[in-house]
Prior knowledge:
It contains 2 helices and 14 strands. It has 172 residues and is mostly beta strands.
Amino acid sequence: MVLVKWGWIDGRAEEGLQKAAGGMLEWGLHSGWSMLDNYWWRGTRFVIGKKGRDYKFRVKNLSDVRLEVVLTVDGLDVIDGRAGSTKKRGYIIGAGEVLEVKGFRIGHEKVVTFRFSSVNSSYANLRDRRTRNVGVVGLALFTEKGKEPGIESRARQGARPFAEAPMIRARD
Length: 172
């Protein structure tokens, strides 16, 4: 059994995908045939993975604008495998789209698959001898400059199907 601690999240513990960032997105870890369950312990969210099993991030954009997500595993940025930072670029996810990230990118087409393992066998330890953040995953979210999520739906909240209230009358 491997415990994974979540960072940079908000939301309540539920099964599978969890809402974050005020409901703008859902995210979680997928392994085998399903999303992994989430558990709360002492105010921290955990998932339990089976040692040796592969897993992937799944992120769904619930907003009506494009979002940028910066993802980390074991404190490492999933795009370049180096120390994670909110100053780095991330993946762009269109409105309503789902992103799946299967591993650390080591080239344009190649990835090192995410796998539940011991601290000593972790990618962070084997690559950089850094184990401080092993077992921690994170997500930072950025909206597109000048695009406010939900502005379209808020603009239509007062919309009416007719310019004026229809009169009640019999049809000819």
